[in-house]
Specification:
Blueprint: E1 14-19, E2 22-33, E3 36-40, E4 51-60, E5 63-77, E6 80-85, H1 90-98
Antiparallel strand pairs: 1-2, 1-4, 2-3, 3-6, 4-5, 5-6
Length: 104
């Protein structure tokens, strides 16, 4: 059953995941939206409802910034991890759609 909040756009971004200060690695997004995102990959030992920090590097006009957002694990499937933002982030989703430099 689909539980997404709002539409998702197919955007490929490299994001870093952390859990409680532990680096879980870098993952490629499949899609992203105001309610959450899907990642390609698998993390051994990760439980649904785990709280993660998602970090995205953003470079504009030579200035690099890091966006950090909290998300819950809501789905784990065949090489896919579904995350739901802790808070609704419509602004972040709109920003990624307007920034082709974020796509890999």
């Amino acid at each position: 059953m689909e539980h997404r909040i709002g539409p998702r756009s197919p955007i490929s971004l490299n994001v870093d995941l952390c859990q409680g200060g532990n680096d879980l690695g870098c993952f490629l997004t499949k899609d992203i939206g105001p309610g959450g995102l899907s990642l390609k990959g698998k993390i051994r030992g990760l439980n649904n409802n785990s709280l993660l920090t998602v970090q995205v590097e953003q470079t504009a006009k030579g200035d690099t910034q890091y966006i950090e957002l909290k998300a819950f694990v809501i789905h784990q499937g065949n090489n896919t991890i579904g995350l739901m933002w802790v808070e609704h982030h419509a602004g972040f989703a709109k920003a990624t759609q307007r920034m082709p430099s974020l796509s890999v």
